[in-house]
Amino acid sequence: MRADETAVGRWEGAIEIPSNQLPVVVDLAVDKSGAWAGSIIVPGLSIKGVPLKDVVVKGSEISFGLKRSTGGGLEASFKGRFDGNGSLTGDFVQGGNTAPFQLNRIGVAQVETAPRSSAVSSGVEGEWQGEYEMFGYPRKVSLKLKNNGDLGAGAEFVIIGKRVNNLPVDLVTEQNNLVSVYSHESGITIEGRYRKETNEIRGSLTQGPIEVPLILKRKMSDKQSG
Asked: Looking at the structure, do residues 93 and 133 belong to the same domain, yes or no?
């Protein structure tokens, strides 16, 4: 059996972290150029459809990593071996820590392409500020949105609590005045509706299972009126 016949497919299982299991789904395929392509889903780490990088298949062995997003992202790698009976076992390595994993092939590959940021409207482009409370502590949010031509919009995302956190942003979209900003490293999503009449983005901030209301107002020094 060829290496591509052994590895291609959707693989589902878990990473065995201390006292817990971390469910994971890996999709592996060969693209039109003959190169390996893949994506991964790890719900417990708020990872969905993140592209794989450096996929190498040699005989019964495979290695690959999580693709680092511009400005940040989880760095992790997998090294494993196929047993020829639809099972893949090996080690997951992240931040110097190693945990065993076991995956089983459950069907055809469903490789996801990475979503791309869209441009934002002139009313949304600019700097926004807001506040929210989580676990009894107040936090301030600063969000600066800027269009970058064909790359869509980018964002500078800062949360200030007990310390200043500059969060990498993977995806910015706006559709029908609904603005979404996603940071997969932190697992934080901001989603809100832009209201031109009040010059606000009103919605929520979500981190894992926690969702809190959030209202962003344009920074006072920003002369852009939308």
From this structure: no
